[in-house]
Amino acid sequence: LFSGRVEFLLSAPQLKHLPDPDYPEIAFAGRSNVGKSSLINALVQRKAIARTSVTPGRTQELNFFEVGDPTQFRLVDMPGYGFAKAPLKVVDNWRKLVRTFLRGRVPLKRTMVLVDSRHGLKDTDREMMTMLDEAAVGYRIVLTKADKVKASELEAVRSKVEEEVRKHPAAYPQMHVTSSEKGMGLEELRAAILSDIRE
Ligand code: GDP
Q1: Does the residue 1 lie in any domain?
Q2: Which residue's C-alpha comes closest to atom 9 of ligand 1?
Q3: Strand ranges inside 132-171, DSSP E
Q4: Alpha-carbon distance 50 to 79, whole Å?
Q5: Exposed site from 27, 42, 140, 146, fewest CB < 10 Å?
Q6: Per DSSP, what are the bridge partners of residue 27?
Q7: ipTM of the complex
Q8: Does the residue 113 lie in any domain?
Q9: Is residue 178 part of a domain?
């Protein structure tokens, strides 16, 4: 499925631009530069179907991709967050768009919250998790760029994040450790996504 048809569907800067809720959806969230585009591209084995935001804080759209022929599900690339210099208005728009999407999106089966293996959880990730808890949208924590840290550091970050994530009602206690660069953890994540869309 992941190596077959993947197509960009549309970009929704506002909720009125959302596609009809026809297929199960899996969303991807994370701080700007966490490796979200790289992970989406690696999962679907494309070089650049998901694109890095050139100007952090400017991309405020939800990008939809269709997977399968005929379509089996959609991937939703949510706007990155946590950029230091974003104007208040941009952050406010982000919050409104994401919160409303999460609360009202019936076909949304799961959200993948990406966290950099080097940094662990930041306050903006905590805000994201709280929004997901409040919207009752189940989510998985995905550590990214695992190739950038030593095994011992990875274990330390992992257990620290896991301990905190356990307190969030809508979070899966078990995390995924990935590296888009090295292909690590991708097959497991694909399997998890397939089980999520079938729920
Ligand atoms: P986004 O802003 O979250 O979409 O992040 P990108 O996917 O554009 O990645 C940000 C930077 O991190 C880029 O320079 C990527 O090459 C790098 N990066 C992403 N994933 C990995 C990874 O698994 N390993 C390493 N070493 N670098 C990565």
Answers
A1: no
A2: 35
A3: 139-144
A4: 12
A5: 140
A6: 76, 111
A7: 0.99
A8: yes
A9: yes
Residue 12 φ/ψ region, left for φ over 0, alpha for ψ in the -120 to 50 degree band, beta for the rest: beta
Ligand 1 centroid to Cα of residue 34, in Å, is 6
Q: Is the pLDDT of residue 91 over 90?
A: no
What is the domain extent for residue 106? 6-197
Q: How far is the CA of 41 from the centre of ligand 1 (A)?
A: 11
Whether pLDDT at 84 is above 80: no
Write the pLDDT tens digit of every residue in 23-74: 999 999 999 999 999 999 999 998 888 876 555 545 689 999 999 999 999 9
Please say whether the beta carbons of 54 and 17 come within 8 A: no
Residue 114's domain is classified under what CATH number? Answer: 3.40.50.300
The verdict on residue 123 lying in a domain is: yes
Pocket residues: Cβ below 6 A from ligand 1? 30, 32-38, 52-53, 80, 144-145, 147-148, 179-181
Share of the chain above pLDDT 90, in %: 82
Taking each helix axis from N to C end, the angle separating 186-197 and 36-43, rounded to the nearest 10 degrees, works out to 80
Predicted pLDDT at 59:
60
* Domain total of the chain: 1
| SS3 state of residue 67 | strand
Tokens encoding 188: 């497991």
C-alpha distances (whole Å) from 116 to each of 51, 62, 78, 85, 167 are: 18, 21, 16, 19, 20
Span from the CA of 195 to the centroid of ligand 1 (angstroms): 26
Mean pLDDT of 93-108: 95
